[in-house]
Amino acid sequence: MTEELLRHIAHFDLDSFFVSVEILNDPSLKGKPVLVGGSERGVVAACSYEARKFGIHSAMPMKQAKKLCPHAIIVSGTRGEYSRFSRWVTDIIASKVPLFEKASIDEFYIDLTGMEKFFGVSKYTKELRQQIIKETGLPISCGLSSGKMISKIATNEAKPNGFLEIPPGKETEFLWPLGIEKIPGVGKNTEMQLKSFGIYKIEDIAKTPADVMEKYFGRWGESLWKKAHGIDRSEIETGWEQKSMSHENTFEEDKTDLDFLYSELVRLTEKTAYSLREDEKLTGTVTVKIRYSNFETTSRQETIDYTSLDDMLIAKAKDLFNKSWQKGRPVRLLGVRFSQLIPFTMQMSLFENNAEKLNLYKAVDDIKDRFGSKSVTKAATASSRPSPKGKETHTQNPKTE
Fold first, then answer.
1. Catalytic residue among 22, 50, 101, 107
2. Which of 120, 174, 127 has its CA nearest to residue 147?
3. Radius of gyration of the chain from Cα atoms?
4. Total number of domains constituting the chain
5. Any residues with CB less than 8 A from the CB of 48 and at least 6 apart, and which?
6. Are residues 379 and 274 in the same domain?
7. Rounded Cα–Cα distance for residues 23 and 38 (Å)
8. Residue 386: pLDDT above 60?
9. Domain co-membership, 153 together with 13
10. Contact criterion met (CB below 8 Å) for 102 and 95
11. pLDDT band at residue 104, thresholds of 50, 70 and 90?
12. What is the pLDDT of residues 74-83, one digit of tens each?
């Protein structure tokens, strides 16, 4: 690897994030097998390392987890706290580094390339990790290497609450002894397929000719071969806060009827939430835009707990509308925008009180995909009035198209 191509990519991952937040709020949970989730009808959203010793893992049915560890402590989860701590860590990182990517609510990639001219990259990364721990009280693991994938694997090897650096030129020395399941993206099915070919370690992939890997596994096989050789040029996706998607409608006639405006607001929110789930994103900010008959335009936005659920988004959109609309003034345009988007994280759907809702919305989404967007409509949007004619626009950040 030539010096001009050398990159320094750090990966930060908050350890057992949901559990760690719960322990901060209730220190008596420390050192105990803790399960975050609902009742026995739900699933495990997250579990402490003490619980993992009993074979418990996230997404496991809570009933099964309780059989494995009858004395486990179940906490229902405080979603608002998770969002607050996630933003806290994000703010610390944003204040200290030039480029970063928020990969999920508890995971970050940081590009420190070029900073070696001014700081010791390893020392700087360790100090940033210690600052996060000191200010928030959360344990966080970190990997540092020349690429995103290697750093992520290094982070997983450093857990819990550790730091691991893979020096330039040592990528394959680090990767090859590891099992194939350590490669991000290798699930159970791929693992079983690879093992059926006698491939158990990353070194086995590396020593299999690239054309053979491609022959049996397609483009994914070629990608695996490159990963096994430590070849990773994937870029840091910056500007996550600016990503947004929205829908708005300019009416042919100005509207003052509150029932109609509510109905249209719900319709626009539903439509944007559908796009959100389709793109596997969660939103952290909702904005409602109102343009009056004289073209005066107001926008009000508020941060929320990360979500993609219609009922939560509709409630916030109505709240923002009520705070903004000047009663009686004719409305020319109404719009809803979601921003501060982050990739959907499985754990966010696993709390019992939200899992059924999410599954319901996804089922409705599937029906819309098959039969059209108008095939299923909420009662709030159904009206005896004809659909509003006008010019509707949809805006989506290029990263989400």
1. 107
2. 174
3. 24
4. 3
5. 16, 19, 23, 29, 32, 33, 34, 35
6. yes
7. 17
8. no
9. yes
10. no
11. confident
12. 998 776 788 8
